[in-house]
Design a protein that fits this description.
There is one protein chain. The chain contains ten helices and eleven strands. The strands form three sheets. The protein has a six-stranded parallel sheet with strand order 3-2-1-9-10-11, with helices on both faces. The chain has a three-stranded antiparallel sheet with strand order 5-4-8, covered by helices on one side. The protein has a two-stranded antiparallel sheet with strand order 6-7. It is elongated, with a radius of gyration of 22 Å. It binds ligand BV8. Ligand BV8 binds next to β10.
Length: 366
């Protein structure tokens, strides 16, 4: 968070600046942490989306097949939050670096929040590896193939209006600063876990009391005396997304299917052209890479988690920018750097020798 970044080691920064100014080919790998200062929850951090609920059930084709309404609620919430957010100085600084260095400076982002494009990041130098929340496509991508880019409508449908009372509880931050999903989202996830996992399902799913800051609905006829402490498994709560396919975005072309967010779910392959473009950067016949910036990522999701190592093999020195030093991977003393702090504060400082002061690029768009 602003003001909490410890002073950087001037010798390390000078060494980094020296390499930066001589670098011709720079690859940046971005994760959710770069957007944290824009107010967007990270997946794994203390206030992350994955805390307390298994989004692995949601960001998957199986989750969407089982209950598209539940998954659409999750993405309606993500779209709403991303539309409210603004790019921060880290997004702008990287866009400016790309403009100054030119086409040999390429950014690979795992983020689907659209903040790098909104910061004016040169389009040809940004690969959105996991897609974008604001592109939708028909679930029948082969037979119909309808794609809707730049759809910023919010809500997409009345049923997906996240400002409705109970839906607004999604992502509510409670005193321990962990977002609480709405009862309907958690109940639906728990029910789906039970369905998908069958008898393997242990009822560790979030208990009703996990929603203490929120009014957890009770199953009809099972009202508890006021103040009763007994937590009940979420699957008891007969709530669900309650949405039907008619409530969800419809394909205007084939008029037979619903639309889905054009994001890459776990178990799905990256878009072929995107994956090819990324792999080409590290190919044997590609030019050497001078510098790789790894910004705000826990480097746990593949194939992106492997790109820094590929850059190393092409000669790059690696600079990790992260609030957690422990998330820097495969460091080589004397070769690589770890700058610990908020990317929104660190990146403008670290890139200054090439991009100049923020008065020249802050809020600049291409
Ligand atoms: C695929 C889109 C093959 C949706 C996402 C090899 C080994 C093991 C597993 C696999 C493997 N290969 C494939 C897999 C499976 C899987 C995978 O990697 N699983 C993991 C969990 C082990 N990978 C896949 O399924 C991929 N597909 O490989 O396809 C294939 C081939 C052919 C045919 C079929 C299949 C697809 C993965 C894409 C998943 N989609 N997102 C959505 O967003 O809803 S993943 C999603 O989570 C994000 O996109 C991102 O990638 C990931 C979260 O990671 P981070 O961005 O790093 O965020 P996180 O919260 O974890 O960390 C934040 C970091 O920021 C922290 O380090 C924190 O300290 C730091 N931070 C916080 N605040 C700040 C900060 N830093 C600086 N400043 C701050 N202020």
């Amino acid at each position: 968070m602003p003001g909490t970044t410890p002073a950087l080691n001037p010798t390390e920064v000078a060494d980094f600046h020296n390499v930066l100014q001589q670098s011709k080919r720079i690859i940046s790998v971005l994760g959710a942490g770069i957007s944290a200062s824009s107010g967007l929850a990270t997946f794994r951090g203390t206030n992350g989306l994955w805390n307390g609920q298994d989004v692995m059930q949601v960001a998957t084709p199986a989750g969407f097949r089982h209950d598209p309404g539940l998954v659409w609620q999750f993405y309606a919430y993500r779209r709403h939050e991303a539309l409210k957010a603004k790019p921060n100085p880290a997004h702008y600084a990287l866009a400016e670096l790309s403009r100054r260095v030119g086409p040999s400076c390429v950014t690979l982002t795992q983020n689907v929040d659209n903040l790098s494009p909104r910061a004016g990041h040169p389009e040809g130098q940004l690969k959105q590896l996991h897609g974008n929340l604001f592109t939708l496509h028909c679930v029948d991508i082969v037979g119909c193939g309808y794609v809707d880019e730049g759809n910023f409508k919010d809500p997409l449908t009345p049923a997906l209006d996240t400002t409705r009372a109970e839906a607004a509880a999604i992502g509510r931050v409670d005193p321990d600063h962990k977002p609480k999903a709405s009862p309907m989202l958690l109940a639906g996830l728990a029910r789906k876990n039970a369905q998908i996992l069958g008898e393997k399902f242990e009822d560790k799913s979030p208990q009703a009391d996990d929603l203490a800051p929120l009014k957890a609905a009770v199953a009809v006829g099972d009202e508890q005396e006021p103040g009763a402490a007994r937590p009940r498994p979420m699957s008891d709560i007969r709530m669900s997304s309650g949405l039907s396919k008619e409530d969800l975005p419809q394909c205007p072309k084939c008029k037979a299917n619903i639309l889905r967010p054009s994001v890459v779910w776990f178990g799905e392959a990256l878009a072929e052209s995107t994956a090819e473009d990324a792999e080409a950067l590290f190919a044997d016949d590609a030019e050497p890479i001078d510098l790789c910036l790894v910004v705000g990522t826990s480097s746990k999701v593949w194939p992106t988690a492997g790109y820094a190592e590929k850059a190393r093999k092409k000669g790059a020195r690696i600079a990790t920018i992260n609030i957690e030093a422990g998330d820097a991977k495969g460091l080589r003393p004397g070769m690589d750097w770890v700058f610990v702090g908020d990317a929104a504060e660190l990146l403008p400082e670290l890139l200054k020798p090439v991009i100049g002061g923020p008065e020249g690029w802050k809020n600049a768009t291409s």
